[in-house]
Amino acid sequence: MAQMKRTVIAVGAMFALTACAPAGYNGADAGAAEPVAVAAAEPSVTADPEASAEPGASASPGAEEETDAPLPEGVELTDSLTGKKFPRMGSAVVNQDGYILYRFDRDTNDPPSSNCDGQCAEVWPPALTDGAPELKGVSDDDVGTITREDGTRQITLDGWPLYTYIGDKKPGAWKGQGVGGTWFVVNPDGSKNLECLPKGTPKAVAPPSKTESNESDSDYDY
Fold first, then answer.
1. How many domains does the chain have?
2. What span, in angstroms and rounded, lies between the C-alpha atoms of 18 and 63?
3. Residue 97: inside a domain, yes or no?
4. What segments bear the compositional bias annotation Low complexity (predicted)?
5. Do 126 and 154 meet the contact criterion of CB atoms below 8 Å apart?
6. 149 domain residue, yes or no
7. Long-range pairs of 108-112 with CB within 8 A, sequence gap ≥ 24
């Protein structure tokens, strides 16, 4: 996988939240969303093969010679990142299936690192890759990868690891917004989308392994 650079871009100002729907609001169908007004990146990323990786960032160009760890059962690769706009929500990034991607405040972006594993990763599946995803409305300068503890590679945006949310039952849903006060829809530049926050602090759904837990009354706090 080619080495990818990342650039920090300032977060846009947040507008008034009076018109925002609660966390259950699912936005609009993904097909109705409009592309974000950001210069589209080329589908593939190239880099100097001699370039070295930054500490804690994506692996060096020689890493593609290594064999990636097997993907967890039932997990698909993230083949594309697309910046879009949704009613009320504003800008967001979706994967190839139209599902919105999130970032986690307990992670770090300098150096890039994920602190969501185990049951957390069951609820917030990491956006995994085996190469450079196709980009639209997202700058290749902001996209990178980290290697997780299980050996899989997770996509980062401005250094922030990306995730989907199992509580989003269909493309374009954004029930993960503001969960636990630590999970937020990610903007195309990697910053947090704070334009439309739910009232209170919603809880995450229970991880699938906790079959005895009730989804609507979960004590899961990730």
1. 1
2. 48
3. yes
4. 41-62
5. yes
6. yes
7. 108/159, 109/156, 109/158, 109/159, 109/160, 109/190, 110/159, 111/54, 111/55, 111/56, 111/57, 111/159, 112/56, 112/57, 112/58, 112/144, 112/146, 112/156, 112/159, 112/160, 112/161
Sequence-distant (6+) residues with CB within 8 A of 121 are none
Amino acid at position 143, single letter: V
Q: Has residue 197 been placed in a domain?
A: no
| Residue ranges making up the domain that contains 86 | 80-185
Domain contains 39 = no
169/148 Cα distance (integer angstroms): 26
198-221: pLDDT as tens digits: 999 999 999 998 755 454 444 566
Both tokens of 73, joined, read 């059962």
Report pTM: 0.70
One-letter amino acid at 182 equals T
- What lies within 8 Å, CB to CB, of 45 at 6+ separation is 2, 4, 132, 135, 140, 143
Q: Determine contact, residues 143/155, Cβ cutoff 8 Å.
A: yes
